[in-house]
């Protein structure tokens, strides 16, 4: 008589009668409930599937085994007397024992009512419903469109020129552990340029360079080399500069061993602590006569200029908040591509908290009413962003408008900086030649060694930084020329025809045609003239500054009354153009040279505002712009042609009405999307026209602008149209030369970025400034349209961190659906079946709820924006700087579509990860099968005994010891993230083992367990990216022999539930079904994880680990309800049966 086990052999060979095939894509609660069939109705017909039967081992195991039900002669099941409590769920129908044999186990039994549950057929985890397939294809398609757009559309051109240097580094070995505990991990260096610096003595102004995340101390070399060469070649020969306090710069740099500070808050704090001690040591070097070579008459330095790249800029701001910060030792900070507003990723709780503490400290300091109460009153901070080419850190995060007022700092983009005019990637901002020249000259301009702080006062420093880093056309730009004393005495003939009639435009198509110096006088309209007059001038010839003798100079002149015997020796420069005429007028003039705004040259042969290596250098245009009220104290604008030989070039100067040249177009984004924006620049337009569109403020949208060709009626065009797009906060300008078409993108209002201190006005928006040749006498048509495909690419940089959180929203809802079906029917459906059910109801309802939540938070925030906090008024209402932390990071209802878009993309990504996990587990299973394959003939009934197990199920004692050792390591050496990684590896092995068993013996219990551990593995995979960065930091510290443990990552409770749960899974034990109200606990926990991942996941991603950890704790508790604990059993766990171990398993 053939012998059957009570497990999977019976399951396959004798299925019950009337077993309905369940359509996994259309589960209904009523269909999934167990149906009652009398035990006598069991069908004993043998299945066509001839699978080998396996006998039960007589050896006891750590699993709750149950005896098979006795059968009578008719083949029906004889009912046992039911115990008081519901029998727990059994484990896999087949498990691998320690000796390598497959052992059958009892499948889950029907409830005690005597009914036999209807068992669905084995469902392949690869099967996907039509709805889930369509959703996945749409999601992956959207993701591909976003990625493709980010690399092909709305891409800023690269215009950096290569820099060259001859670096050398002197390590300061005396800065050792006597000064700081971190000296064994970090090092301090002094940069020296070969051929210029011949020793290691300090003699200039100290500057400290701080590298960023995984940065090298050698990254200081481009800027330090430029500073050394510029002082050596230019400044040391400039007596006025030396007299003003300019000296060479001593660049110090720090070797952080390429520490990963972006992902770890403690590393950031350690770097700040080390640098404060480094500054203390650097300042002490200037007091040591053996090392210092400074002029003894100069005061000793008390502060250091700080230059920070990327996370180095955040470390620089952190230094001022540390307990070991030496007061007033830092007063000037320049950061490059530094994410000031929020951490790049929110995977580490200490990193997020450190950012919050730093930003709160800076905001609180500048909210003080009195300067004496502000510890940062003397500090200036300039944040320089690379723009669209920076794909490492979103340039929106570089904004400091939410941290400090414009009297102490600002944010500027490299495309704005004169003579730079290009975006830069994250590394190019360090070595870009034209940019490093501007930075070095700006630092020299704020240096003053006659003061102990080594820099000029704060207000003057801000004036210098605005001069070097801003275009000069901003409202905050100061006109310095008008504050200078008259330096030129200009004498002109009264009968000369050089005076331009009022209202006429001065146009020069060449210089020096008269063969002599010539002046063109333009009368200045009186102040208060109708139309708000302004003076503008554009030329392609360099304008002279005081003391220069070039080809062209612009002067603001006032008539000097003639007095007998008056001396004119007080004017350094005198120009007599009267030609000896008796009727002449003397004019006292100020040069406009210091206020010249340089613009990129725009001709029909130029393509970009910059020139690159190997291209011909372009001479920029010179532009002047003044309001009439600014120059009202003068009578004339004098344009002096100094060229005496014919010189190519042009000049256009005019007085125009501000009201005619400036327009504001109020148009909604919906109307702009549908119809675009069209406007015309008339033929009688001024040379400069400006259009402001207040609705264009979002960083998520891109546009295309087209300019029609202007017809000059056969005349030579003086210059091609030049376009400037700009924002006023932050300061971002982009130039388009020879403008026909322009790809318009901006860094304005961005997701998750806090609002500025002064708030945003409804009139703030993107402005377009057009320079067109007014002599062509033809109108110009301009059309602005939305670039929808280009806008998709803008989502990548702003929402890429969403994929660390929002997929958990999908996975948690799917897992919740799986548990609900399992608790109701006893069937743990596959991941894709759960996804299909969620797509039909749960996910749409949740997305609708999140949309309404976004609208409600917007209305709440709008009600509190009546007043804005101002830094001078400490008693005013404090703005909520965390109002953009939730959901999609913006309150604009226009972007509500992002919620379903992100969700559908995450659905596609989750399906891809699901199939990748399936592939991985199948590969592991296949490899294990190959490793355990034995050739030769084997009887069917003995095949299971001959098949060794690919993965062993360890004994309870071994599992407890392994878990205890791992937890002990967590408390002492390794971070809990390492233990979590180990848990993931164990889970994938368990999943592969369950997959092999479920595929070889297709039964309900095997399928349930495999689907369960697979879904838990998917959940753990999405938690893994949150833990990996800290693990990488730990490995990096081991590589540099830094063995000091992380105080913030050794909490055993942060990983113990995962370890217990995963060790429980290795036994092959299926989680019991929960009855009554306890099943709602699992549902609530998973629902909470889903909601939190969607609402707070981007800003507080690290919390998702703790929520999943709490879920693991609950599941471990549920697992434990199937075990009966006793002291005897616990003793058996460790002692075991020695005789059984020696004897081994019996068939």
Automatic annotation (TrEMBL):
GO biological process, one term: GPI anchor metabolic process
Residue segments, region Disordered: 1-92
Enzyme Commission number(s) from the entry: 3.1.-.-
Signal peptide (UniProt feature, chain positions): none
Organism: Corynascus novoguineensis
Limits of the GPI inositol-deacylase transmembrane domain: 802-1119
Cellular location(s): Endoplasmic reticulum membrane
SUPFAM superfamilies according to UniProt: alpha/beta-Hydrolases
One Pfam family named in its UniProt record: PGAP1_TMD
Main function: Involved in inositol deacylation of GPI-anchored proteins which plays important roles in the quality control and ER-associated degradation of GPI-anchored proteins.
Transmembrane annotation, as ranges: 126-147, 797-815, 894-917, 960-988, 1009-1028, 1040-1062, 1083-1103
Record's protein name: GPI inositol-deacylase
Keyword Transmembrane tagged: yes
Biased composition (Basic and acidic residues): 40-52
Source lineage: Eukaryota, Fungi, Dikarya, Ascomycota, Pezizomycotina
